[in-house]
Amino acid sequence: MNKQISLDVRSGLWIATFRNPPINLIDPDTIEELQNLVASLESDNDVKAIVFRSADPDFFMAHWDVLADKQRVAAMLPGPTGMHPWIDVLARLSRAPVVSIADIRGRARGAGSEFVLACDMRFASLERAILGQFEVGLGVVPGGNPMARLAGLMGRGRALEVVLGADDFTAEVAERYGYINRALPDAEIEAFVDNFALRLASFEKHAIVESKALMDVVSLPPDAVFPPALSAFFKSAAHPGTRTRSAALLERGLQQRSETEMRLGQVVGELPASGALQ
After folding, report:
1. Where are the domains of the chain?
2. Closest CA relative to residue 195, chosen from 206, 205, 184
3. Starting from the edge strand earliest in sequence, which strands make up the sheet with 13-18, in order?
4. Predicted confidence (pLDDT) per residue in 119-150, tens digit
C-alpha cells in the first residue's frame, strides 16, 4: 500500500500532506492512515498544532471513492468511539488535544468537505479552493453529517443551501458564509498558515488543550448525531435512482482528472431527472 499521508514533524507542529493520485479520493486506506494519525495526535505530548495540506493544487480531498470495495467498507471495525471509523476519525479529530488547521488549495467536496469541517480551523486559497457537499445531487445523504457542523457555522438556511443545493462554493463565498475562517490569495496562504501554526506551537500546550476543550463543550455536535447520517448514506447509496445518477457521472468522468471533477457542482445540476436517465 502506498502511503497517502506524509508527515513533516517540527517543534510542536506537524504538517500532514495528502497525496492519493489521480485526484486525492478518500478510500479505506485513507481512513486507516487517518486513524493512526489521530491516535498519534491524541497520545503525543509535544505536538500542539497540525496543518493538513494537499500535494495536488487542484484537489485537496476530492470526495469519497464511490467505487471503493463495499464489503471492505462494511467490514471496517469501529474506532475507539464505537462508531464507524470514518465518523470516528472526524469526531476524534475535532476533540483531539491539538489545534487542527486545514490549508485548502483545490477542491474539498463531499467527504473532503466533511474532513475540513472536522478540523478546528479552515483557511482557503481565493484562486484555487472549492468547497461543497454534492451528495444530494448524486442521490445520497451526506454520511459524515456535515449538516450538524454547517448549521452551527452558518445557520440553518445557508447550511441547507449548501447541502440541498449540492453546488460548489468559492473561497470568497465560503468565507462570507462562515464555511471557512478566511480566504487568502494563493501566493500568501501557505506562509500565513505556517506563521499562524508556528505561533500556536510556541504557546503552552496545557493552555491550548484546556481552552479548546471548553470551546468543544459549547460548539461541537454530540457524537450521537453521526451514526444515523452514515446509516442514511448507505441506505440512500443503494437507491436505484442514485445508482443511475452515479453511473451517468462515472461515464462523464467522475473520479478521473476530468472536466466533470473540476466542475462537479455544476455537472450534478445538469443531470436530467432520474426518469430521463433510465
Report:
1. 5-201+221-225
2. 184
3. 5-10, 13-18, 49-54, 99-104, 121-125, 182-184
4. 999 999 999 999 999 999 999 999 999 999 99
Separation between Cα atoms, residue 217 and residue 39, nearest integer Å: 21
Kindly calculate the radius of gyration of the chain based on its CA atoms and give it in whole angstroms. 18
Kindly report whether the global pTM for this prediction surpasses the value 0.70: yes
State the pLDDT confidence band at 276, using cuts at 50, 70 and 90.
low
What's the rounded Cα separation, in Å, for the pair 278 and 263?
23
Please check the confidence at residue 181 and state whether its pLDDT lies above 80: yes
Residue among 240, 220, 265, 251 at smallest CA distance from 96: 220
Q: Taking the CA of residue 166 as centre, how many other CA atoms within 13 Å lie in the half-sphere pointing to its CB?
A: 18
Compute the distance between CA of residue 134 and CA of residue 174 in angstroms, rounded to an integer.
Answer: 15
> Which residue blocks in the chain are alpha helix, DSSP H?
28-43, 70-75, 85-95, 111-118, 135-138, 146-154, 156-165, 171-177, 186-201, 205-219, 226-237, 240-251, 259-262, 264-270, 274-277
Write down the CATH number for the domain with range 5-201+221-225: 3.90.226.10
Rounded Cα distance between 230 and 86, Å, is 9
